[in-house]
Amino acid sequence: MLTSMYGIIIVGSSLLIISALTSIIAFRFGAPLLLVFLSIGLLAGEDGIGGIQFDDAESVYFFGSIALAIILYDSGFNTKLQSLRLSAGPSLLLATAGVVITASIVGLAAHFVFGFSLLEGMLLGSIIGSTDAAAVFFLLRVGGVTIRDRVRSTLEVESSSNDPIAILLTTVFVELLARPDTPSGLLAFAITAFQQAGLGLAFGVLGGFVIIQVVTRLNLEAGLYPLITLGLAVLCFGITGMVGGSGFVAVFVAGVIAGNAKFSGIISLRKFQDSLTWVFQIAMFLLLGLLASPSQFPDAIVQGIVVAAVLTFIARPIAVWLCLLPFNYRPQDTAFISWVGLRGAVSVLLAVLPITGGLPSSQLYFNITFIAVLVSLLLQGWTIRPVARWLGQIVPPKTGPLEKIELELPGGTSHELVSYRIVPDSPIATGARLPRWARPSLILRDGASLRLHDAGRLQTGDHIYIFTPPRLVPMLDRLFASAATSVDEDDPTLFGQFQLDPTQPLERLADMYGVRSKVGSELTIAEYMEDRLSGPPEPGDRVDFGSMDLIVRDIDGSGRIKAVGLYLGPEYEPVDNQPFFIRWLEALHSFRSKK
User: Fold this and answer.
1) CATH 1.20.1530.20 region(s) of the chain?
2) Choosing a second label site near 584 at 20 to 30 A (CA), which of 46, 301, 336, 414?
């Protein structure tokens, strides 16, 4: 008994370690990380070199559901309101209507091409309908592909939020197929869908606020906060499912609400959840790989490849185009979002549902889905970088901080302590002026700590520590970036997107942008800024005005403000037009413009 237990522990931990270490392959060769984990599971399984016999589908689905709930909670927790504001409409439409359209097209193809019944085809389409957040996040964030903000936000929010709809559709179709005598199938489907989505949303909002209240009001040991928040998230998942709602919708919504709140220890929570999410992702991928039987794949390989082709070249592009049509995305953006529709662990996990539901040909669903996922990861996962370059989506990367620590101050204010290492070809190293708001509090040079007035001119290799509001961190990134992203006087992030006349009345600016200002109407823009600044103004000095920033662009010989820049936010930064068009998308857009 003990020998068997220790053997299972040794095998499980070894697979976990091997999976983590082989992520180096993914980083070096750009392979989707999910593909690496699935491959290890296949090699360790009954048809691989490991020869492990494993066919407990119910246990896989039970563990996978808990793992997916935790992954979705973390996805919601890390979904910023800025990303939602930048792409909320298109992303949520893709995550709902887009999944339904994709599932419908794949389902109809399976019905007419392979002879599946309409319900069976819709079940297969629902299983394969959602994109994989883990694969998308890895390739866009960790994989070194830096793309345009609006496109990146759309893909990240969509991939984080579309799993609940696919799970909802799959669950409903499995129930309808398991009970074919159920009257009014379409009505039952609509009632069940609205019930699960509605209850999931309601309990998710409630769960998010409960998590915030518990974390902010209870005085616990620091190490217990991650455990209690995770426990509350899983509790929200369980209660919502118990009353007939979608627990997956609930945990994602709870994560969004809790992750965008300001409370003590949120940075440590993010780090804990990030590590735990990796553990659950790896474990879930390994179990799904172990459950698969590659010796059965030849019987489903044609269906799997055809489903992947329909999904990649027909269903996904049509769904994306229809969903993004009202939002005036460029054809290149629409084409790239269509291509980055990677399928992954959620689809394979949902393919277990027909097995646990005892449906006929349930193993065929699983094998078709597994092959389609492998094709998606091989075809799309390895081509994202060249396709992004082809469609003009890649932008110069920004050098971020080496270390970022949040400093929470009394009264609800929020600052961060950001550490940078000065690289040789950065603007700061080549003589650029360091704005007053970016003055470092501490400089580390050759192992010694120095204050600013003792350090003299900043040197390459210095580690500097700056206290700053979080909203100014992107500006610091530009100042300390490498030469590839060096800034000049036209950089909108540092000097504003518009130039203002500093002699104009501040009241006129407030009326133009709807800012409620308590400042006297007789003040000019320059007088307001000089009053807010401590000491003589310098180029680069910033003064917040509502949700915007007023920036000193230039000063005259007497030290007075000569030119002012206005920075509205990253969502208003200009995007240069690319001349390339995917031909069939161009035709669709041309047709739309003629109507």
Assistant:
1) 2-42+55-390
2) 301
